[in-house]
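Q: Could you predict the 3D structure of Ribosomal silencing factor RsfS?
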Amino acid sequence: MNNLDIAKAIGKAAQDKKASRLVIQDLRNRSDICDYQVVCSASSDRQTQAICSSIEEYLKKNLQVRPIAIEGKQTGHWILIDYGSVIVHVFLEEIRDYYALEDLWSDADLVHLED
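A: Sure. Here are the predicted structure tokens for Ribosomal silencing factor RsfS:
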């Protein structure tokens, strides 16, 4: 199992909870923070929390991988899940639009779940 497999598994788990605007960016050779960044949106704090829980459970069950840290789950506005070389951001729509985090690496290659 490699970091790309983890990023794709995160994407699948997020889609299972109807995450919108899912983006997986390949940040290898662009960032010292992580290899892949997964960004998705939700329409409510309950949905962001459900997406986060789905990701945690799916990766634990299917890949035996646990996050290093999770921040923001209580409020559900912006949840950050740290899997080491894969970072996940689950945003409320308006918070995501404000920070436009994926625009920091707008030239990064995108990963498609079908690949």
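Q: Anything worth pointing out?
A: The helical segments are 3-16, 45-63, 93-99.
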